[in-house]
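Sequence, please.
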């Protein structure tokens, strides 16, 4: 799910010199306190002093844009044009997004950390909390000043967006009565709703974090003038959401559910959704009943407009070119065409012609999210689909993305299949592929803190308040791959590992072409092959498509305190939170063992690599938005194009293919 990209190897000397050599530990300390208890006063005395005394416009030489961004924001602040505090925030609301980006613009143009953190403290006390959190998160991700800062888990910063309202209500009662509590969260719905069987996937807080963090790494509003270009952003948009879609289908099979059907504008939305979540300020998230027909959404879009936009995009895939705003043709009948198409469908500011092709993805999220109140009759707040934090909770999210994924498939299937010559890594063969350890999943309860969910004052002491929710995990296992190198010299190789369901929901074996489109990327890494036989062992915990759980607030506070005292914080592995959770690598499986096709392709690393040293620098496997992608190949290569004759792969020496089973024996490790 997570694509490969090099971390920002940015201006280290400049970062070291900022603010007199401000340490990473001090920066971590500042961010911890800026985001802790976001709806109350800053609890750090130094930051509170900055918030009270700092003048953002006093010395404009500390900004790389000579203060243009901060002056613009200060004008709106002084004119009382900004959204008030204690109000919901949605990135899909144009004015609210503009305000959040005005603050981001200030952060990204700060030359030193002291200016950055002083502005953060100042505006934290004066701007809407949701706008502030969004702007600070994106700034920390993209600013070289904050390169080694680990952001706290959003589910502890803004718990309302991740936690059922029943648990939130229990947390309030615990705070009011000063009684510590640990409360169970449950997934939305009941057993009467078949979609409840896969709620553990869409409502998983790690999956929610992955989705929102990816959209922070690669925001649709990004302009290169901020600081850097987001390499292959449109293709990344396709790949991340394609992987979410095929993975959701893989979860449905062991739960006796058919693959999701795509949504369409002239068809009924069969599945309703009741979020059981509440805004901190603004009421309940709206529900949607079953069997709703799409209606125009006032002030957003008519359904007719979306059909027109779709037809224009499908015409582009059929003709093999995009028309830019100057009327020129951009050829997409090549491996980079998917990148242009992704920019068009999202649509990001990278789209070559947003006026003609519109913003299918972003508009669709709003239109689907507003179907509870399309004409604003009841003044309902935004639906879950209007927040990247909550969007995957609604099963219709996956139906919406199946609809867009099928447009991407039309384009991919229009490209010529790879030839044997293009796929062969001469002199290299996969001799054996095996799994060491049983592929077994289980459920475990995960606990996180709710102290930021409740109202807060320094006059009333905190009590321990938390919730726990079941989540999918799997036992560790290893990939065992034997590869022969008969080229007579050491060579660099890329190892690509995928899996797909062996049978469909009707028990019919997938053809190779059907399977490869539904393939889940399990890992990708570089290795040097010595002449002769190479025995490769790759641990599931090393997978480059996953990330570990983000440390909790309490852990961050503890580690930061140790680091300020001179110890190693041990936080380096958590600097990127974009990727599926490392416990989420395998689909659930079943008691009998759900059959999967496991494939490995060993390809020419020298031709694949866009950077040097990929086999020895594991930082290149971390997810991030700076710099160039290490892999020159398209995402999903070599399974990204249609395969009319699967014998091409069967006879490919550098390709391994076996069947495996994923088990789930009903184990649930519960909280004490």
């Amino acid at each position: 799910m997570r694509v490969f990209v090099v971390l920002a190897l940015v201006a280290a000397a400049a970062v070291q010199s900022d603010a007199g050599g401000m340490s990473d530990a001090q920066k971590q300390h500042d961010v911890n306190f800026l985001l802790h208890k976001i709806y109350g006063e800053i609890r750090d005395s130094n930051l509170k002093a900055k918030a009270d005394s700092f003048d953002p416009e006093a010395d404009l030489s500390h900004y790389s844009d000579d203060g243009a961004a901060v002056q613009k924001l200060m004008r709106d602040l002084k004119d009382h044009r900004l959204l008030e505090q204690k109000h919901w925030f949605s990135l899909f609301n144009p004015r609210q997004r503009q305000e959040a980006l005005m603050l981001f613009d200030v952060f990204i143009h700060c030359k030193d950390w002291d200016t950055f953190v002083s502005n953060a403290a100042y505006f934290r006390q004066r701007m809407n909390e949701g706008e502030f959190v969004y702007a600070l998160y994106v700034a920390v991700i993209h600013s070289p000043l904050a390169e080694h800062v680990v952001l706290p888990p959003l589910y502890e910063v803004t718990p309302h967006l991740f936690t059922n309202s029943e648990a939130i209500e229990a947390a309030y009662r615990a705070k009011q009565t000063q009684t510590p509590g640990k409360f169970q969260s449950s997934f939305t719905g009941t057993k009467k709703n078949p979609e409840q069987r896969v709620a553990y996937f869409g409502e998983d807080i790690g999956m929610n974090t992955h989705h929102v963090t990816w959209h922070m790494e690669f925001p649709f509003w990004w302009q290169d003038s901020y600081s850097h270009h987001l390499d292959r952003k449109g293709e990344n948009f396709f790949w991340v959401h394609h992987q979410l879609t095929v993975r959701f289908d893989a979860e449905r099979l062991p739960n006796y559910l058919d693959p999701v059907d795509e949504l369409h504008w002239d068809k009924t939305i069969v599945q309703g959704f009741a979020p059981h979540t509440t805004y901190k300020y603004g009421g309940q998230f709206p529900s949607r009943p079953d069997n709703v027909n799409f209606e125009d959404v006032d002030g957003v879009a008519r359904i007719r407009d979306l059909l027109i936009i779709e037809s224009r995009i499908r015409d582009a895939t059929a003709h093999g070119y995009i028309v830019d705003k100057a009327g020129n043709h951009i050829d997409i009948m090549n491996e980079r065409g998917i990148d242009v198409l992704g920019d068009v469908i999202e649509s990001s500011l990278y789209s070559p012609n947003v006026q003609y092709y519109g913003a299918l993805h972003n508009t669709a999220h709003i239109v689907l999210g507003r179907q509870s109140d399309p004409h604003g009759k009841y003044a309902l707040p935004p639906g879950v689909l209007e927040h990247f934090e909550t969007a995957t909770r609604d099963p219709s999210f996956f139906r919406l993305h199946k609809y867009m994924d099928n447009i991407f498939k039309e384009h991919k299937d229009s490209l010529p299949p790879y030839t044997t010559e293009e796929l062969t890594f001469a002199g290299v063969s996969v001799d054996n592929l095996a799994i060491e350890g049983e592929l077994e999943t289980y459920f475990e309860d995960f606990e996180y803190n709710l102290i930021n969910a409740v109202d807060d004052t320094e006059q009333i002491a905190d009590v321990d308040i938390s919730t726990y929710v079941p989540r999918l995990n799997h036992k560790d296992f290893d990939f065992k791959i034997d590869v022969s190198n008969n080229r007579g010299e050491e060579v660099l190789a890329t190892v690509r590992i995928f899996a797909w369901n062996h049978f469909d929901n009707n028990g019919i074996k997938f053809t190779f072409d059907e399977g490869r489109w539904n393939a889940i990327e399990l890992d990708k890494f570089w290795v040097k092959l010595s002449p002769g036989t190479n025995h490769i062992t790759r641990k599931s915990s090393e997978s480059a498509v996953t990330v570990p759980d983000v440390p909790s607030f309490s852990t961050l506070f503890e580690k930061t305190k140790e680091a300020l005292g001179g110890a190693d914080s041990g936080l380096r592995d958590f600097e990127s939170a974009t990727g599926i959770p490392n416990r989420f690598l395998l689909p659930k499986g079943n008691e009998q063992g759900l059959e999967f096709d496991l494939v490995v392709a060993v390809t020419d690393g020298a031709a694949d690599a866009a950077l040097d040293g990929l086999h020895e620098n594991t930082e290149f496997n971390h997810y991030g938005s700076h710099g160039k992608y290490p892999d020159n190949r398209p995402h999903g290569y070599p399974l990204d194009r249609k395969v009319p004759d699967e014998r091409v792969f069967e006879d490919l020496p550098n390709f391994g293919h076996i069947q495996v089973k994923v088990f789930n024996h009903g184990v649930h490790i519960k909280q004490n």
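The chain has three domains: 24-145, 188-414, 420-546+575-669.
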